[in-house]
Structure formats: C-alpha cells, structure tokens
Amino acid sequence: MSTDGSSAAGGSGRLAGPLGRLRRHPGALAGLGLLALVLVPAVAAPVLALPDPALTAPAQRMLPPLSAGHVLGTDHLGRDLLSRLVWGARASIAVGALATLIAALAGAVLGLAAAWLGRLVDGLVMRGVDVLMAFPYLLLALAIVAALGPGLANAMLAIAVANVPFFARAVRGAALDIRHQDYIAAARLAGHGEPAILAREVLPNLAPTLLLLMTTTLGWMVLETAGLSFLGLGAQPPAADLGSMLGEGREFLTTYPRVAVLPGLVILVLVVGINLVGDGLRDLLDPRWSPAGSSAQRQGAKADARRVAVGGDAGDAEQPDGLPLLSVRGLDVDVTGPAGPLSAVAGVDVDLRRGERVALVGESGCGKTLTALALLRLLPAGTAQRGSVRHDGTELMALDDTALRHLRGRRLAYVPQEPLTALDPLFRVGFQIGETRRAHGTESAYATAALVRMVGLSAVPDLLRRFPHELSGGQRQRVAIALALAHGPDLLIADEATTALDVTVQREILALLRRLCDEQGRALLFVSHDLALVAALCERVLVMYAGRIVEDAAASDLLRQPAHPYTAALLGATPELGQPQKTLSVLAGEPPAPGARVSGCRFAPRCPRVQPVCRSAEPELVRTGDGRRVRCRFPLEDGA
Amino acid sequence: MSAPVLRLAGVAKRYGGARCWWPLGQRAAATTALAAVDLDIRPGDAVGLVGESGSGKTTLARIAAGLLSASDGSVQWYGRDVRGLDAADRAAYRRGVQYVFQNPQTALNPRRRLAAILDDTLRGLTSLDPAQRRERIRRVAAQTGVDTALLGRFAHQLSGGQAQRVAIARALLGEPRLVILDEPVSALDVSLQAQILELLGELRARHGLAYLFISHDLAVVERLCEHICVMHQGRIVEAGAREVVLGEPREGYTRRLLDAVPRMQT
Fold first, then answer.
1. Which residue intervals define the domain ABC transporter in the entry (chain B) (predicted)?
2. What is the pLDDT of residues B188-205, one digit of tens each?
C-alpha cells in the first residue's frame, strides 16, 4: 500500500507529540479556557475567602449583584450566590468525575471479560448489558435512586450504573480488535500467560480509548447529575450542586431570574468546555489528524490558476497527432508536516499520448500515488498541488468543482487498489453501475450489459443483483473497472489495481486492462511497485524516486538497459522465477522522507556510482539519444 | 535421515459447526480451512509454502506455531505430540518454534518501546538475568542489523524494513530451531525485500535454522527454500524438491500458478 507522503507526514507529526499540536487546535484551546473558568475556582474553593454557602441570612434575601460582601448577590434565603456557585460546581464536577470513573472501571472490567473469557461469558455479559440498555438511562437512574433513596452519593451511583453498558460495549469492541492483533500472538509465542498479556499488551492499548470515552462522557455525566438534582433526587439541602440550585431558583424565574440563570450558565460553560476538550483530545490522539486540513489545498489550487507553468521538454513534444492527451508541467505536491508543508512531489513534467500504456513505478513513499491523484485533482486534505495539468488542452487547475467533476469519470477515470472499499457494500452491483452511468446528466457511453460484457463478467449469474461482498476479489476489481469505463474515458488511472489480488487473478486483470486499452484506443497510467508486472503490461515506464521522475523510457529499453542507477538497483533487487542463483543487488538505506534535506541528487546517498559532483546540485531530467529521459549526470550505458 | 523438528500428521482445521443457540442444538455449517495435511520439517530445512489467499497457508502455520489448535490430527515436536508435552518439553517447544508476521508494524505493540518488547520476550522464554538478557539482545540485534539506538523507539517510528528486522530479532532471541515466516517480505519494497532475504539466508546458515516460509511470491520462495509445498483449497496438492515442483510440476494447479507469474524477460 502506498499512502506515500501523507502517512510519513502523519508519523512525524506524532513524533512532535499531542501536546505540541494542542497549540494548533483552536477548539481544544477554547475548551480548556472555558473549563479553567469553572474548574480553577471549584478546586480552589476551600482556600478562597468565600462566605459559607449554607449560611442563611433572611434579612439579606435577594440582594442584587455587587452588594457589599456579595459580588453576585444572594438567593431567597440570603445565601451568597457566588459562594454557592463555586461550591455547587465543585460538587457537580466531583460527582460527575467519580461517576465517570466508576462507570469506566466497571465497564472496562465487564468489556474485557466479555472479549477475553470466551463465548459463554461474552454472551452473558452482553445480554445483561442489552437489558440495561433497553431502559432509557434517566428512567434507570430514577429507578435506582428511588430504590436507594435520594442523595448525592446515590445519584452518583445511579448515573454510574446507567452508563456502565456504554463503557462495556466500547471496551469490548476495542479489546476484540486488539485481541486479533499480531502482537498478541507474538506475546503468546514468547510464552507469556494471559494475565501478563492483559497487563502489558492489552491495557496500554486500551488506555487511550478509555481515556477518550471518559472525557467525552464526563460532560454528559455532569449534566445527568444536574438533572437528578434538579428533580430533587440528588444533593439535599442545605448542600447544593448546580442542578439543585437550578431547581430551587426555578420558583423565582420570573421575579429574580439570575438565581436560576447563573447556575444554568455555569453548567453550560462547564459542559461545553469538557466536550470541546474531549473532541480536541480525540483529534490530537489520532496521528492522522492534521490542523491545516483542506485549506492548504484550496490555496494551492488558487495559486495555480495564476501560475501555470511554461513548457519544458516532457517526453514527446512533437506529437504525430498534435496535442498529447495529458500534459503535465511542473507538478509539485506538498504534504502538511508538523512544521509546515513538505515537498513530496516536485517538478513532474510528462506527456501521455492517446492510447498509450504508461507505468509509474517506484518504492512506497516516492510519491507515485500522490502524483496519480494530483492528475485527477483528487488529493486528500492536508496536501496542496501546484503546476499545470492539461487534459486534451483543458487546464484542470483552472476548472471549478463542477467542471472538474464532469471531466473526471467522463474523460478521466480511476481504478482503485482495493475494490472492496471502493464499492459501496450496501448497494447491489447493478444499482452501482446504473448510478455511475447516470452520474453526469447524460446517458453513459455504454449500456450496462455492454459494460458487463466488456469486463468479462457476463457469465456470472445474477451479477447485477449481488452485493460486492458476494463477489470474489477479481470479480470486484472487474466491477470497479466497469464503473471506471462507464462514460468511455480516454484515460484510465489505475493505482496498484492488482496488488491485492492473487497471481492467477492478477494475470486476468492485466490482460483485461490491456485489451480494453488496445481495442478502444484508451490511455492507461498504471501505478505499481512491481517492475516485472508493468513490463508485461506497459509500453513506457516512468520511474519515480523521492518525488522526482528519474527515468522515462520504453519498457523494453528500460528492462534491457536501465540508465538511471536507481532503476538498475530496482531491477537488480527483483527476484526472478527460475533464477534462484541470481545475486540480488542490495540497495542499502531507504528513500528520503518528504521534505528531507538532501543536497544535490536525491539518490546520491544510496547510489553505488556516486561522484562528488552529484552532491553539489540536483541534476535535470535530460533527454538522451534513444528518446529516453534520465535524471543522472552519469547514466549507465550499454555495456557499462 | 534425521528426525523432523516438527511434524504435522493429518492436521485439519474446521470453523463453525458449533451448536446454535437457536434453533436449539442444531449445528451450523462448518467450513474446512485445512483438510488432513501432512508435513515434515527436518533440522535446517527451508520449506516453502505457496498458494493463493484462502488456501490455508496461514492456518497451517499458526497451528504449527501453537497459536491455533487443530480440529484433527497432531503436531509433533521431535516426535512427540505437543498436547502431551511435559512442562520442560513444552517450554522447549515454545522456545523452539518462533513466528515472523507479515506486517511488522502490527506485530510489535505500538505503545511499548522496542527494547521492552524484546526484553519481555526473552523473559518469557528463558530464565536469564537482566545482564544476560541485555547481552543477548545486543548480540541478536547486531546479527539482524538492528541499530541498538533504535530500540528506545516505538514501532511506528521505524520504517517497514527496520521494523521487520526487529521482528526477526525477536523471533531469534530464544534461539529457536524452527522459524515460521508468514509473508515476511510481502509488505516491503523490493530493495528492502532483497535486504531481508539476504539476512534470512545468512541467519539460517549461521544458526542452522529450519524455516517454514510462506509466500504468495514464487520467485521469493524459490530463492530461499529447497523444498516447496503448493497449497490449494486447504490441501497440499504438490510437494517436493524446488527443482522438481517448479521445474517439472505434475499438478495442473501448480502449472497455472507458475504461468501467472509476471516475468521481466518477455
């Protein structure tokens, strides 16, 4: 799989640590601010010089705010409102937090037991949980309080119990997932017993999930406590929490609204703060999250409409039939790193003729997938592309979304690596083909039956009535190709379209792609890491290394005599059937990550033929005699 | 001929077929993942297991490693059924058969440092003291080309090639007799694949290891293994010396598999 630069950038982002990224998450920062507003006074309540919150003074009832000694005034019994708010918030937070803790612990134990102790325990625990979940939580909590009697401690217990099912289910799901991970099998192979595996392998992996659930539930728990207290089942006078203050203040809502409004506001601020922090934490713990999002991409696209690069020698300038079908000039792709954009693809110049089958090869992380997606302007969030992509004379970078969408599918089509994720699992194959055929307002180029015949699926009984999971991997890939073909595109871009398939099926799909391109004069860009594979399919090969095209040559020339040392190393490292004695050339090291500083030629650190001059400046992609292009000062030559 | 390190005798694995909750007592349909497989692995042998996805390769390997139990048949460690081993032999079997997974990133606990993972493995398999464990880890890391400075990191901070080296190091810590390699190079790029294949060849020569090498890539298997078993739908359909199975295949399925391999010389 080649998620290329984006994954590398996510990885290094994780190195910087969630705390470092917090600064770039406005939501979480705002949440922390709101939370601090309530939490700090609540925690510090005993040391603050506040009047006793329970001290009644009937003579001073309903004093307005800013009265002497009462900043926020007093309530109907003359108690200091500020003091009551602070102590009330303290009670609410404590009860909410404790209830969360109890529910999380009990839920974790039950969930873990269900996931680990076999089917019988699982069945018993989960059916019990189902029974609890069958009652609305408030009803359940009310029933528990009714049985135990009102009081803050009982309310807390009730809320905790009502939330155990939620935690038990989530923990069971997470634990089942962990249970099937290879590192659990590896721990068994190391001879460890189940308790050790649970403690050392499972719990550390469960902890973030649990922590996240707890933060996102905490706000809810505070609200539920307030709800029970509001109904008079929680805090009993003279003690108060925010909910009971709200309940008492309700009587004076028309005459002295602040008595009820103030605790309501505090609840609001507290719960919103907790939820924002919880959401932020979820993002920050996810290594894939990136703060820049799609805005960088939009800016990139805008900048390009103005900065359409000028020509340059890119393959076949003198076309026999005029314009090339696809013409790419100066294509750059940046991915978002922890400290700004990192260059993942740079200076790609290439032309594709009509009906030409071209391969894009290279190791993972070299920018193949990013390049392919950039040609369709389908890059994911957190990336930006610059440069010019012209399809049949139309500049893609200058098109708006609607025009772009029409071009994709009708003229340009994409075949994904894993058709199981590309097809919608909930819809029948026939519906998905039909939907794609109607996608662009006009009827598609081919009828459904013709499409099915083209991809060789006519013999599958009831094909159109099947769901994707009812097909084999090869059949699914054929359906994906049929979808791509529906509008008769003149360019197919296939990203590792056979990598997930078995060799015998792979061979059939390759033959199909080849036939479809041959018969209908369709061009193909086939992205792959496998040189032997593309040799069987494509006429021309583009080799990519560290975001640059380093060689562009006819497939037969490339295999017979690679010119770039990287191409030679790739060929030399590929094992060939029937030649077990072939010495594999071992290319030490690994490609540089996007944005890595390499002075001079980017392959120089790994190149067996490196010269001092190679490290001075990056070589250009230059055309050699036999129509190839090579980015190397000292290309290999015949007999070299 | 020396006695096999590990012998699978009539090993079968079926899934499903349990009694249902409803209708009570009725049996669900069972699927056969593995049907009566026999396989001997002798000391120092490298046996390649090839076949397409769903052919039962991984099921077979997991049963051999004791990660799954067989529905039928027996797994024998130096001639004795692993289910009847006494504590000492059981520990020897545990140490003696190790496993390298396809994806090193999921085979190394993402939330633990690599040094801790290796140390735990050694603690589970042996009774060495901490100084001896450090020494053994240092030695195996050197043999597998793992820079010990990397061991303070987490798995996700390593590249795929480095992580697979760590996973191989872990498998070698207990000085096993048999290492089961489940598609160990399939997730790697060719340049890293060549590095790992070379490493596996070296390690085998140095330690006299036996390999059970699983791969869908015939060219890779051919390089490393003298014996090849072809699996298809839960059975071994053809087995024998590399030259025979790949050179003069008798089974139609083996021939189809060979024909489908893309070749660079066209």
1. 6-258
2. 888 888 989 999 999 999
